[in-house]
Design goal:
The complex is a heterodimer. Chain A is an all-alpha fold. Chain A contains 2 helices and no strands. Chain A has helices spanning 2-15, 22-46.
Chain lengths: 48, 565
């Protein structure tokens, strides 16, 4: 199982060299969601 | 439509059909026919996932939704990134490790045969009917274009989709999806730019946004307070994040038409990247599409819109009653008054001008309602919801020739691709979860492909039948999502129990699933019949997912507490 994880990690680094781990990618996606909601909220308030 | 438009349109459709047939060569067994072995790159999987969800309905109906109700529909997609992360973390590793062909195969390994069959059946019912919607949407376009009967067109388009789906299989479907997604996004961007360019002289893009905001069309995030919170409110921040996440989790994680996209990935990493790609781009993409609807509203503040966005109905009404023509005359007067009020407000944004603008807008809306009531009174069989035709009317009446053909071709090809992916997964699930599972004979590779094709044809014919009655729904995109929400919660509950509640066994989850489905159908069917006594059951459809899923998990847990086995 550890070897499997290592292979997966290597493949991730090969495909996305800037990504340190899957958790970091997940945080990016969720962070973008929070940012988007925040921006949309400000957008709707600014022009209401 | 000019000759150039028709050439572009016919060329694209023919290309898809020929491409599908050409791609059908060399498929020897169900695995090569139903799983997409070439979609190995993560971004390609991501595009394929997006293309499967974004059909012609998205392209036509979403701008209409924003035109009528503003941008708050975008909150429906807030749950998607959350769902993508959960599926990447939990669902994909299990599906990949067990090397399952359909998501439901896993349920037999985890629970038992009856639970697998129940989940697969729920998928077939919901997706079979959803497939009808996907065929109806492009039929609507052509009916407006050619003045032909929508139902005849449903049959024609459905059969055309069937031809290339049956011969092409998943591989051809996903290859075309990749190209179509680029064209779709490019097309929407182009349409948005053209709308702004068609604003009258002196009205800038920012003026347009200010007007849209003032008229309540930029309500992208609505956060009800605890006192104002209402379960009936379909789109707000809470229903979007919680209900939307459950719906997205069920759709992307358990609906075979989506699971099939990433099961074909070369590796776990590629499949995960594909899903995260979708999580990152989904909300911005929907923003663009909804924003087109908002710009359309601003465009029609300065360009006279029709009283009713279905010219055939309007023509019939004019012939049948003078009242409709009188309403059209009043509509023209009110449009001019609103146009003047908008121009004045842009010149001077004071309270008096703001009130005048809001009142003029409200007067036009009231007149629209009056017209719909009149149509309904005159002919009860007419669908009075015309918002799906708003964007289409703009394309046909205001875009330059050549581009009209291109946009119609994009809509049609997206619809066909999405529809074919659905039919493909329906045929695949019937083959794998029913025929292969319950059949006593060992099938050869060629027989597997042949049976998969037969099932795809059967589902195609059923989808066409459902498309014939799809026009009765209030808004297509909403109808598709309501339909999905009737079943998704239960299926999701089964999968979540499978992943996280190890002590719950087959019978417990089966009982939970049956009760969960009854709860959801009860929420949908009972309140309109007993509005006095069961008003508390009347909730926005996004909550169905949570209720269905919660019932399965809770009943499963409780049952397993008393089940000694």
């Amino acid at each position: 199982m550890n070897q499997e994880h290592q292979d997966e990690h290597d493949e991730l680094r090969k495909l996305l060299p800037w990504a340190k781990s899957w958790n970091q990618l997940y945080l990016w996606v969720l962070g973008e969601l929070v940012l988007t909601i925040g921006l949309l909220y400000l957008f709707s308030k600014a022009f209401a | 439509m000019s000759t150039l438009d028709w050439l572009v349109l016919a060329g694209t459709i023919m290309f898809i059909v020929v491409y599908g047939i050409w791609k059908s060569r060399g498929q020897k067994d169900a695995r090569s026919y139903l799983l997409n072995s070439e979609s190995t790159k993560g971004w390609m999987i991501g595009l394929s996932i997006m293309a499967t969800q974004a059909s012609a309905i998205t392209f036509l109906s979403t701008p209409g939704q924003a035109f009528q109700d503003g941008m708050r529909f975008i909150q429906f997609y807030f749950g998607v990134p959350i769902a993508m992360v959960i599926i990447s973390m939990v669902f994909i590793p299990i599906f990949q490790r067990l090397k399952v062909f359909t998501a439901y195969e896993y349920l037999e390994q985890r629970f038992d045969l009856k639970t697998r069959t129940l989940a697969a059946s729920l998928f077939l019912v919901s997706r079979g009917m959803g497939g009808g919607m996907t065929i109806y949407a492009p039929a609507l376009i052509l009916s407006a274009l050619l003045g032909l009967n929508v139902q005849l067109l449903c049959i024609g388009i459905g059969l055309l989709v069937l031809v290339y789906t049956v011969s092409g299989g998943t591989q051809a479907v996903s290859q075309t999806q990749k190209q179509q997604m680029f064209v779709i996004l490019g097309g929407m961007l182009l349409a948005a730019i053209l709308m702004v360019r068609l604003f009258p002289e002196g009205v800038s893009f920012f003026d347009g946004i200010k007007l849209a905001g003032k008229l309540g069309k930029l309500n992208a995030v609505t956060v009800p307070s605890a006192r104002d919170f209402d379960f009936k409110d379909r789109y707000n921040l809470y229903s979007g994040i919680i209900g939307g996440a459950f719906l997205a989790l069920a759709y992307f994680g358990t609906d075979q038409s989506q699971v099939q996209r990433y099961l074909g990935g070369k590796s776990l990493t590629e499949s995960r990247i594909g899903l995260l790609f979708n999580g990152l781009l989904k909300v911005p993409m929907q923003f663009l599409i909804l924003f087109c609807g908002v710009l359309l509203y601003v465009f029609y503040l300065f360009t006279p819109p029709p009283l009713f966005f279905n010219e055939r109905v309007s023509t019939t009404m004019r012939a049948q009653t003078t009242e409709f023509s009188a309403l059209e005359d009043r509509h023209e007067e009110l449009f001019l008054a609103r146009k003047e009020a908008a121009a004045k407000w842009l010149e001077q944004k004071d309270a008096a001008n703001e009130t005048a603008l809001l009142e003029a807008d409200q007067a036009l809306k009231s007149l629209g309602k009056e017209a719909r009531d009149l149509i309904k009174t005159t002919d009860r069989s007419v669908n009075v919801n015309d918002q799906d035709r708003v964007f289409l009317t703009f394309i046909l009446q205001h875009l330059p020739h050549g581009l009209i053909g291109l946009l119609i071709a994009v809509i049609l090809s997206a619809a066909m691709s999405s529809s074919s992916a659905e039919l493909n997964s329906l045929g695949g699930t019937t083959m794998i979860d029913f025929h292969k599972r319950f059949g006593k004979k060992q099938l050869s590779g060629a027989q597997e492909v042949a049976w998969s094709r037969i099932y795809t044809v059967v589902w195609g014919l059923l989808a066409i039948s459902f498309a014939l009655v799809a026009g009765q729904f209030e808004n297509l995109i909403q109808a598709v999502n309501i339909l999905g929400s009737l079943f998704y919660g239960t299926v999701l509950g089964i999968f979540l129990t499978a992943f996280f509640l190890k002590r719950v066994k087959g019978t417990a989850v089966f009982v939970g699933a049956v009760l969960g489905e009854l709860v959801v159908i009860g929420c949908f069917v009972l309140p309109p019949r007993f509005p006095e006594t069961l008003a508390w059951l009347d909730v926005g459809f996004l909550w169905y997912n949570l209720f269905g899923c919660g019932t399965v998990v809770l009943v499963g847990l409780l049952w397993s507490l008393f089940d000694r086995d």
